[in-house]
Design brief:
The chain is of the alpha+beta class and about 575 residues long. It has helices at about 1-10, 25, 30, 40, 55-60, 75-85, 120-140, 160-165, 305-330, 335-340, 340-360, 370-400, 415-440, 465-490, 500-520, 525-555, 565-570; strands at about 20, 45-50, 170, 175-180, 190-195, 200-210, 215, 245-250, 255-260, 265, 275-280, 285, 290-295, 295-300, 445-450, 455-460. Among the domains are: about 1-50 and about 185-220, Rossmann fold, CATH 3.40.50.2300; about 245-295, Tumor Necrosis Factor Receptor, subunit A, domain 2; about 305-400 and about 420-445 and about 460-570, Rhopdopsin 7-helix transmembrane proteins (Up-down Bundle). It is built from 17 helices and 16 strands. A five-stranded mixed β-sheet has the order 1-2-5-6-7. A three-stranded mixed β-sheet has the order 14-16-15. α7 crosses α8, α12 packs parallel to α14 (about 465-490) and α14 runs antiparallel to α15 (about 500-520). The protein is rod-shaped and about 160 Å long. About 25% of the residues are buried.
Amino acid sequence: MQNNQEISREGDVITDRQFLSVAAWSTSEDILQNEAFSKLSHGVLGVAIRSAQIPGFENYVRSLHPSLRPHDVFLREYWEKEFGCAPVSSSSAPLPPCNGTESLYGVYSHFTDMSHLRVTYNVYLAVYAAAHALHSLLSCPNTDTSTSSCSSPQYFTSAQLLQHLEKVTISTPHGETFAFQDGDFPPKFDIVNWQKTPEGNLKNVIIGSVDDLGIHLNESAIQWRTESGQVPVSVCTMSCEPGTRKAIRKGEAVCCFDCIPCGDGEISNNTDSLQCDRCPLEFWSNPARTSCIPRQQDFLSFNETLGITLTTVAVSGAVVTTAVFVVFLYYRQTPMVRANNKELSFLLLLSLKLCFLCSLVFIGRPSVWSCRFQQAAFGISFVLCVSCLLVKTMVVLAVFRSARPGSDALMKWFGPHQQRGSVGLFTTVQIIICVVWLSVSPPEPHLDLGVQGSKVTLECAMESVLGFSLVLGYIGLLACTCLLLAFLARKLPDNFNEAKLITFSMLIFCAVWVAFVPAYVSSPGKYVVAVEIFAILASSYGLLICIFAPKCFIILLQPEKNSKKYMLDK
């Protein structure tokens, strides 16, 4: 009672709570009719003892009259209170006598309201069950009370009645069938809701039930306490949407939690998920983190900015090389071209053009044949290029040595046929390495699933690191040999100054490929391909500019120096 008074005083303050009542006061008429509770009680949900109509009971109650039950004190007091008169059987009441026409058939009160028969209905069921058990007991054919649970009408025990009560199955007039379970009555309760009537009063409305099968609820019939009339939610935290997970706040109630977004590659597709599930390797989470979608295949394509830039640089290098080739072909009879072994110069320009063009094979979607062809084209093109430079350097040294007395036989080993044969021999070794490598363990298209992200890199996986290492190692061996020989020939007379150009060009070439190795190993995804293309283009431009730019400058802009007399005088 003290708690009720406290709640009544705080009724104006407690406005954001949804109350749940226990069976003790869910159906209390005193609280329903208390005006102090009207603000607080609206929308209350509670559990109550189940109710049901008892056939014929309403007519029985309304037919009651003090004249028919003169000794019923309760009925006489109710009659005096309801009609304000004293029944004829009551001579001591200080009220005017009733005229005898009063009747309960027109009275609507708590006493005559049969819509919520709760305790009464359970008493009715108890009597009903006892009657069935008694009927079963007295209907037994065996009357030997010492060996049977049956009995005669003259004598039976409470234990015998209890045995029949536990076995009996009862069917009520409402169509319900139940039996006692280990002496207990099957549980069933009403779920009630305190709702406001148009007149402003409160009434109990049954909006569902609870039994051994579960909860049966008519949500559309509920009046909630919230101002909006919507289903109330926790005032601590709203529900976590799909794509997030619940994280309980330490030291707070379980209804208080934080909604943590799922991480990359994780999803939750249910409300209030306790954890996020990781997507399979071939899938990734969508932006909302609610479902797994296939990972997009990523590779260096011709359509993206990096691919367009590298393609432009490669094509530009091939065009410039072709232009230099045309210039040398047009001026092939001039001393500048002839003095530097024009056949090897043309072959060097052709190999440089192949180097520029082979970089294009690395761009685009990797396939079985592109993965094999790109490495072979790269290895053979660069060996052909470096072989030309190596032979040119060897020729320069041989020419200088042949000027000494007794060295005439040296030039027999460096004639035009020997030069072409040497280039062919060096290149053939690389071809054999590539054939063996691509036959035994060639590169294959492969999805790199180890990298986290919405994209998965489609790359040419090196099945044999040894094969790729031999290709690079052979190019490096020829380049280092050429650099060493060119360095030894750098101080020869000026009319053999091509050794200086080769020295400088090979320094750039070696520096590029030494820096390539760590960059290639540490680059992620498709940028591995971009690093290799950059190394190819940088070294190719280095050779083209260092060797042919000075010659083209003299041929085109200083033609007076492109004469036999000038070169001999020099």
